[in-house]
Every structure is written in C-alpha cells, then in structure tokens.
Amino acid sequence: MATFVLIHGGGDSGWAWHLLEAELRRRGHETVAPDLPSDQPSAGLGDYADAVVGAVGERRNLVVVGHSYGAFTAPLVADRLPVDVLVLLAGMIPAPGERPDDWWETTGCIQARDAAGLSAIEDPFESFYHDVPRKLAEESMRRERQESSRAGSEPWPLAAWPDTPTKFIVCKDDRFFPPEFFRGLTRARLGIVPDEIGGGHCVALSRPKELADLLEGYLQG
User: Fold this and answer.
1) pTM for this structure?
2) Is the distance from CB of 165 to CB of 219 less than 8 angstroms?
3) 123: which residues sit within 8 A by CB, 6+ positions away?
C-alpha cells in the first residue's frame, strides 16, 4: 500500500482532499493532506515544502500529488523525499527560476484563457465548482484562505525537474485552465503526454472515486 501526499492549491486547505482521502483509505492506503502555511504573509515556497515534509515524517512508498498552485510545491517535496511517483493534477508546471506570479504570462495561460472564453467567467460556482454539489461547493468557498504574497514573488528554486517519475492529469471539463493549454504545456515542460479525467478544476470534490482509480493505477508503474 502507498502513502498519498496531497498538496492543495492556492487559497485552499487540506480539507479539499477529504473525499479522496476517504476513498483511498477505504482501499487500504494512507493519506497526508496538510494545510500549507499560505495564510502567513511571511511564508515562502520553502516553507510550503517544509510543512509537507514535516507532515510526511518517516512514511515511505510516497505518491505526491500537487493540485493547481500546489504544483509549485510538489516537486520541491519530491526533491527532498524518496517519492515513487509525482503527480500534478491540473497543476501549474513551474520552470527553474520562474515566479508563480509570472507563470500566467510566461506560459501563455492568460492568452489561452482569453481565447477559450474562460476569463469572462467570474462566478466561482461556474469556473471552479460547476460540477461540484452546491452545498459542498459552498463549504469549500467558506474555507478559502489568503495566499502568501511572498510565495508568489519567489523564483522557483530548483535548477531542474526532480528525477522522479512524473504524471500529469488534465481535467477535461476544467473551466479555469483550458485543457488544451495544459496538454501543450505538459508536453513542452515535462516531455510527457498527460492523462485525462472527466470533471472540472475541483475534481477531487466532484469525482473522488474516479480520481482514486487513476491515482491508484500509477502504483502499477
């Protein structure tokens, strides 16, 4: 059995994974889903990674999953721990020296969102939670937290991608990041073809069983 280390996205918390955690634990796996110190203005990307590494402790057989903005932290964890598989779920794939605040421009994400008509969607119930049950979406929004400005302004510290088998999952119905944009970015920055899952940006809330199936499949190599 594996330990799934689940890293939440921007403005979020470990609660975002609770349905997926229940599904993975039902199958006999262990899960770790810490809250990043993102609501602390002085916290940087290194502090985010420290929080995850501290939560993992001595656990091994690790599968690290970074969602959205969590993709800036997940490779830092894989660089420090013996990780079997690194998974980015609709993840903002960083490049060496790239600041999270600059990622939108340097990757062409802003233009891709404009071209897909996604920039015009201002209602979070339509952009993030369109396929999440309403009460669950409301609870997720109630739990939203601030994001550290320091983390956004820091250059991503790794000189190269960690030497860890890496997977990327595109959410086919994502209304925040255009799926086609991520397909291209994954090939360009990671040199791999992404896997795909039905559902929107918050697929861990909308389709936890299907996501667990996909993640569990990575254990087979």
Assistant:
1) 0.97
2) no
3) none
